[in-house]
């Protein structure tokens, strides 16, 4: 299968959406309005000033824990929050879901997390969310790993831990997206991939690659959209290659969170629901 055909298979209806997306809105009298300019940065958790996403990293001291870190993302007022302090409440919430949640659909787990107060609108906690959601659903459906062993709470915790190692802003700074890598993390744990197991490693790479195909949308980062891409790639790979049904993948035009996103790309995003405008 050539790359383009493979891409289209995993894009489904989204590919045609992008070709039809427009940079304008139609007003009530039928005239065209330019899209409003959008802020490209998110606000400091401490003072609300929009963050700087620099092209080079600088040394900072975390406002909360005092850790020294080098990062290109900071508040111009001098505030800096390390990834651990930014995300640890959300990671703790995912760890509680790993132990107790009974959801059988990954999309249900994702919506629980995205409406939980510990989850910031954007942040590296989304890198753990995709493997957590996939593995929680597999555990609760009694689906074993490829080697026949059970998917346990410990398997899910390992997926959360791997996702949490991917720093914030990776999508813009490393040519890959943490939530898309989350699809690879989930599938790696399912197939038992290691650096020296070639065939298993290939399958895990396929999951991330398929998510990254979707992520080549040319839009400002959105951790919700990226989570939907990662979820879609993992759900589709498990269905097509292993005949595993994990329920519905995220549907286009279904996002409930756009009003909270000052960077929302609105009609350029395949998940934007115009009825929420
Ligand atoms: Zn600040
Ligand atoms: Zn800190």
Describe this entry's structure for a reader.
The chain starts with a helix and ends in a 35-residue tail after the last helix. It folds into 2 domains: 26-81, no CATH class; 83-276, no CATH class. Helix 3 (83-100) runs antiparallel to helix 6 and helix 5 (125-140) packs parallel to helix 10. The model is unreliable at 1-27 and 29-41 (pLDDT under 50). The radius of gyration is 19 Å and the shape is globular. Helix content is 46%, strand content 8%. The longest helix is centred in the C-terminal third of the chain and has 20 residues, at 223-242. It is mainly alpha-helical and 277 residues long. It has helices spanning 3-11, 14-20, 83-100, 106-114, 125-140, 153-164, 170-173, 178-191, 198-215, 223-242; strands spanning 24-26, 32-34, 52-61, 68-74. The chain has 10 helices and 4 strands, in the order H-H-E-E-E-E-H-H-H-H-H-H-H-H. Strand 3 (52-61) and strand 4 (68-74) form a beta hairpin. The strands form 2 sheets. The chain has a two-stranded antiparallel sheet. A two-stranded antiparallel sheet has the order 3-4. It binds zinc ion (2 copies). One zinc ion (ZN) is lined by residues 44, 46-47, 49, 75, 77, 79.
């Amino acid at each position: 299968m050539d790359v383009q055909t493979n891409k289209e298979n995993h894009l489904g209806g989204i590919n045609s959406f992008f070709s039809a997306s427009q940079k304008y809105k139609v007003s009530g009298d039928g005239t065209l309005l330019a899209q409003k300019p959008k802020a490209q940065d998110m606000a400091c958790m401490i003072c609300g000033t929009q963050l700087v996403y620099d092209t080079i990293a600088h040394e900072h001291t975390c406002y909360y824990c005092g850790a020294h870190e080098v990062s290109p993302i900071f508040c111009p007022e001098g505030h800096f929050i390390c990834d651990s302090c930014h995300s640890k409440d959300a990671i703790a919430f995912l760890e509680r879901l790993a132990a107790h949640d009974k959801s059988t659909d990954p999309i249900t787990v994702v919506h629980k997390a995205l409406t939980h107060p510990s989850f910031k609108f954007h942040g590296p906690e989304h890198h753990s969310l995709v493997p957590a959601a996939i593995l929680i659903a597999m555990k609760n459906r009694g689906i074993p790993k490829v080697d026949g062993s059970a998917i346990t709470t410990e398997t899910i915790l390992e997926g959360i831990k791997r996702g949490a190692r991917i720093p914030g802003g990776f999508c813009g700074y490393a040519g890959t997206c943490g939530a898309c890598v989350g699809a690879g993390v989930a599938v790696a744990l399912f197939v038992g991939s290691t650096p020296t197991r070639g065939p298993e490693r290939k399958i895990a790479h396929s999951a991330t690659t398929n998510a990254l195909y979707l992520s080549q949308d040319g839009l400002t980062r959105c951790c919700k959209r990226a989570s939907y891409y990662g979820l879609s790639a993992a759900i589709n790979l498990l269905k097509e290659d292993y005949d595993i049904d994990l329920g519905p993948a995220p549907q286009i035009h279904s996002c409930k969170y756009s009003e909270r996103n000052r960077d929302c790309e609105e009609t350029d995003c395949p998940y934007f629901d115009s009825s929420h405008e």
